[in-house]
Specification:
The chain has 259 residues and is α/β, with parallel strands linked by helices. It has one domain: NAD(P)-binding Rossmann-like Domain (Rossmann fold, 3-Layer(aba) Sandwich). Helices cover 39% and strands 12% of the residues. The protein is built from eight helices and seven strands, in the order E-H-E-E-H-E-H-E-H-E-H-H-H-E-H. This is 3-oxoacyl-ACP reductase.
Length: 259
């Protein structure tokens, strides 16, 4: 196996959405360390980010025109921007459902539509999903949007593959960000209980995977979905059953009887 080369994204132009803070900022920093020319964008830009409302087709068109003029090509897109809404099935309003989808699904769609024409063979798109996209998570608008993003990613991988453009999805679990900090403490505690590694994750544990998927080391990987969740989705929801039947609990630790 070859050793990854330092600055393995040298010369590549990469756009990252939702890059002003949290996970997006960590991804942008990791990409820059590897030599990429990072175009960090956010709906609430700071000094290091360009303004971009991912739900605005006009914003994407302006960004694409600027990129074409400034660089000619784009080699990577990280659709990281996202919002949540924790209303349950009986309480979610259509307006909130649509708003979440506009950011989490339409935003990546517009990004792909406007930037893929600037991408040469060997380029890479990474969509940031969630373990909500792999489960029946209770915030219905957020969960439905992330499942839809999975479908968009699969379709884009199929459509863009003949052009040599790869599309993959990463699914973070409970990562310490502003979004998760706004949740109730019980939400955090329940996630930790269901995570086999027994802790939350950090943005710096997601960013290296994004770097890898944008690099030439992932040149034959497309249409993949990779959880970064400490094993949260690996047990299919039965970790609590396993925990309840550990040694010392009733009915566990006995010699199996033949049927």
């Amino acid at each position: 196996m070859s050793t990854p080369s330092p600055r393995r994204l040298l010369g590549k132009v990469v756009v990252v959405t939702g890059a002003a803070r949290g996970q997006g900022a960590a991804e942008a920093a990791a990409l820059a360390r590897e030599g990429a020319r990072v175009i960090a964008t956010d709906v609430h830009p700071d000094g290091d980010c360009r303004p971009l409302d991912v739900t605005s087709e006009d914003d994407w068109a302006r960004l694409a025109a600027w990129l074409r003029e400034a660089y000619g090509q784009v080699h990577g897109l990280v659709n990281n921007a996202g919002v949540t809404w924790r209303a349950r099935l009986g309480d979610v309003r259509p307006v909130d459902f649509d708003r979440v989808h506009a950011v989490n699904v339409t935003g990546p769609l517009l990004g792909i539509q406007h930037l893929a024409p600037l991408m040469p063979p060997g380029s890479s798109i990474v969509n940031v999903g969630s373990t909500a996209a792999l489960t029946g998570h209770y915030p219905v608008a957020y969960t439905a949007s992330k499942w839809a993003l999975r479908g968009l990613s699969k379709s884009a991988a199929t459509e863009l593959g003949p052009r040599g453009i790869r599309v993959n999805t990463v699914h973070p679990g409970f990562i310490e960000t502003d979004m998760t900090a706004s949740a109730a403490p019980a939400f955090r505690e329940a996630n930790v209980r269901e995570t086999p590694l027994g802790r939350t994750g950090t943005v710096d544990e997601v960013a290296p995977l994004v770097v890898f998927l944008l690099s030439d080391e992932a040149s034959f990987i497309t249409g993949a979905e990779i959880p970064v969740d400490g094993g949260l989705t690996a047990h299919g929801g039965v970790k609590s059953v396993s925990d309840a039947l550990r040694p010392g609990e009733s009915g566990h630790g006995r010699t199996p009887r033949p049927h």
